[in-house]
Design a protein that fits this description.
The complex is a heterodimer of chains A (112) and B (114). Chain A is mainly beta and 112 residues long. Chain A is built from no helices and eleven strands. In chain A, the strands form two sheets. In chain A, strands 2, 4, 5, 6, 9, 10 and 11 form a seven-stranded mixed sheet that branches. In chain A, strands 1-3-8-7 form a four-stranded antiparallel sheet, with no helix packed on it. Chains A and B meet through strand 5 and strand 10 of A and strand 5, strand 6, strand 10 and strand 11 of B.
Chain lengths: 112, 114
């Protein structure tokens, strides 16, 4: 029974396309996150939602738009994909903001 | 701003020997610190956290971390390393002044040599 799941696991697409990554958690957590891990394994937070409300919005391009239809789901939509968007994107959840987090398996995005 | 630093990109330890992965922090107020582990092609896994109390925190897989306020350090330790401990380890701190977001260090790759 997967706690935090992401789909797809791999995503290969061309520059300029629009794509979405989905995330679901069945832990009953109130807070969900999106992180980007670059090729050097550096991990940076992008967004955080608490009970469907946006609480952290880091300085990412506005081509990235998160959507939380309910507190168990946090999806990431990316418009006009660029080469520099290639990375692994992790979804995570936590009981509350600032506590330990449970990470999903990641989505490896490759933009060609 | 709150931050953590992991001074070593890579640590090599022989199997069976004790291991230490270093982390220093810079925070205003009381620190809220974490360690996570990432195995290849996997998401991060929570190992342990320090909020307050005992300076020696025990976590998963036999790991522990020692909080040292005077040295502003939170080093991860294990008495006897296993080959299966080889992974990427991240230290992290909660930034209570910026929406409680978690700031991760750059990671330390641990190699356990058989």
């Amino acid at each position: 029974d997967t706690a935090v799941s992401q789909t797809p696991k791999y995503l290969v697409t061309q520059m300029g396309n629009d794509k979405s990554i989905k995330c679901e958690q069945n832990l009953g957590h109130d807070t969900m996150y999106w992180y980007k891990q670059d090729s050097k394994k550096f991990l940076k937070i992008m967004f955080s939602y608490n009970n469907k409300e946006l609480i952290i919005n880091e300085t990412v391009p506005n081509r990235f738009s998160p959507k939380s239809p309910d507190k168990a789901h946090l999806n990431l939509h990316i418009n006009s994909l660029e080469l520099g968007d290639s990375a692994v994107y992790f979804c995570a959840s936590s009981p509350d903001a600032g506590t330990w987090q449970y990470f999903g398996p990641g989505t490896r995005l490759t933009v060609t | 701003a709150q931050s953590v630093a992991q001074p070593e990109d890579q640590v090599n330890v022989a199997e069976g020997n004790p291991l230490t992965v270093k982390c220093t922090y810079s925070v205003s107020g009381n620190p809220y610190l974490f360690w996570y582990v990432q195995y290849p092609n996997r998401g991060l896994q929570f190992l342990l956290k320090y909020i307050t109390g005992d300076n020696l925190v025990k976590g998963s897989y036999g790991f522990e971390a020692e909080f040292n306020k005077s040295q502003t350090s939170f080093h991860l330790k294990k008495p006897s390393a296993l080959v299966s401990d080889s992974a990427l380890y991240f230290c992290a701190v909660r930034d209570m002044y910026r929406d409680d977001k978690i700031i991760f260090g750059k990671g330390t790759r641990l190699h356990i040599l058989p």
